[in-house]
């Protein structure tokens, strides 16, 4: 059965990540550390292309046939480093955006806990149908969007490897999908910035090959917030 290998990468760090401030669809760019992380991701792909990578799995990076990215700057500017390394264009797709957090966007978790404790409770209970304000997405909405775009993109690249650069919420859905874990299960896996997550897609299922490869980032500290 033909399959598509997916390298799924969360964008580099932003100032709002460090502030624990919810970004959602707000277009926040990379901070200095995020730019460095993006550069190091690009360097890993370039080293792989040149045959200088240190591990067999790293050599797979250069085999990527296409790069897809959220259109938000923090993701696109991370993807641009990979595109430059592989001399590939970036296809932007709004469906790869972070979850739309509605009234939560721009606020910190401390703000929400203090001023909207009932709302905070609903959020932390991970009610799949609950939406954080007008225009926002529920977890079910996000899941449907992510599965739809991944199925659409991956089906065009059977027998190939592709890169997808997106956001923490999208990475979370991919991990749950690949491991068969429900939306209400509390997360025990990492969603670090600029790490490489390897998945295998077929029309029947998504499988997890490797999660959270940060070997290319050296000693750079990570931010694991999912906004």
Which strand order do you get reading across the main beta sheet? Answer: 3-2-4-1-5-6
CATH homologous superfamily - what is it? Phosphoglycerate mutase-like
Helix content: 25-40%
What's the pLDDT, averaged over the residues?
A: 92
N- and C-termini, Cα separation: 36 Å
Quaternary structure: single chain
Give keywords.
227 residues, 16% strand, 35% helix, Rossmann fold
Description of the molecule:
It is a single chain. The protein has 227 residues and is of the alpha/beta class. It has one domain: 3-Layer(aba) Sandwich (Rossmann fold), CATH 3.40.50.1240. Helices cover 35% and strands 16% of the residues. The protein has 7 helices and 6 strands, in the order βααβαβαααβαββ. The protein has a 6-stranded mixed β-sheet, sandwiched between helices. A hairpin with a 4-residue loop joins strand 5 and strand 6. Helix 4 packs across helix 5 (117-124) and helix 6 (139-154) crosses helix 7 (168-179). It is globular. The termini are far apart. The model is unreliable at 53-58 (pLDDT under 50).
Topology (elements, then pairings):
Blueprint: E1 4-10, H1 15-18, H2 32-49, E2 64-69, H3 73-86, E3 90-92, H4 109-115, H5 117-124, H6 139-154, E4 161-166, H7 168-179, E5 196-201, E6 206-213
Parallel strand pairs: 1-4, 2-3, 2-4
Antiparallel strand pairs: 1-5, 5-6
Helix pairs in contact: 2-3, 4-5, 6-7
